[in-house]
Design goal:
The longest helix has 27 residues. It contains 8 helices and no strands. By secondary structure, the chain is mainly alpha-helical.
C-alpha cells in the first residue's frame, strides 16, 4: 500500500515555482532608451508609452499568479496528506503556471490581437484544470482533513470546477473581441480573488 505523507514538501516546492514564475514575468519589461539629447517629462513619457501593453500584461499575469498562490495555499490547508497521484496533479498545475510567461509576453507585444488574448486565456484555463484535478482527486479518495464537513467539501469541489469552464469560455469571448476577452479574464480572476470558505489558521 502506498504511504501517504503530509503536504509540506509539495507546498514548499510549489511555493518555489510560484515565486520563480512571478519573477520571470517582469523580465519582459525592458528599460527603454531615451533619444540622444532628449530631456523633460515629455521625452520620458514618449519612451515609456510603448511599454503600456507589456505593463498591463505583467500586472494581469502577476495578479493571476498571486491569486493562484493564495488559492493553492487554501486548498492545501484543506488537504491532510498526499499520494503519488495528487503529486502529479499538482505537477500539472505547476506546468501550466510555468507556461504563463510566454503567453504573457506574446499578449504584451500584441494586445489587440484576438489570438494573443485567446492564448493567454487558454493558458490560464490550463492552470484552472490543474486546480480541478487536485480537488477532484483529494475528494475522490478522501485526502482531506477529517474536520472538513460535507458542505465545505462540496464548496471546494464546486469552486474548482468553475475555473476551467470560465477561462475556456473566455477563449471563445476573445475570438469575438480582444476587449471582451480581457474583461472576461478579469472577471474570473475577481471571482477567485474573493474568499469562498475560511482557511485553516496557520
Amino acid at each position: 500500500m502506498e504511504e501517504r505523507r503530509g503536504t509540506e514538501r509539495m507546498e514548499a516546492f510549489s511555493d518555489g515555482v510560484f515565486a520563480v514564475v512571478a519573477t520571470l514575468l517582469v523580465l519582459d519589461l525592458r528599460v527603454p532608451d531615451l533619444p540622444h539629447g532628449a530631456t523633460g517629462y515629455a521625452a520620458v513619457a514618449a519612451a515609456l508609452a510603448p511599454l503600456g501593453s507589456r505593463l498591463l500584461a505583467f500586472c494581469l499575469s502577476f495578479l493571476f499568479v498571486m491569486i493562484a498562490w493564495v488559492n493553492h495555499h487554501q486548498v492545501m490547508n484543506a488537504i491532510e496528506r498526499v499520494d503519488r497521484t495528487l503529486l502529479w496533479c499538482n505537477n500539472f498545475l505547476l506546468f501550466a503556471i510555468c507556461l504563463l510567461p510566454f503567453p504573457t509576453a506574446f499578449f504584451g507585444a500584441n494586445p489587440y490581437e484576438r489570438g494573443a488574448v485567446m492564448l493567454l486565456a487558454f493558458s490560464l484555463g490550463l492552470s484552472a484544470v490543474g486546480f480541478a484535478l487536485i480537488t477532484w482527486h483529494a475528494k475522490r479518495i478522501d485526502l482531506l482533513r477529517p474536520d472538513i464537513d460535507a458542505k465545505r467539501r462540496a464548496a471546494i469541489r464546486r469552486r474548482s470546477q468553475v475555473g476551467p469552464w470560465a477561462f475556456f469560455g473566455t477563449v471563445a469571448l476573445s475570438a469575438v473581441s480582444p476587449e471582451l476577452g480581457i474583461a472576461g479574464i478579469f472577471a474570473v480572476m475577481l471571482f477567485y480573488a474573493l474568499p469562498a470558505y475560511p482557511a485553516k489558521p496557520d
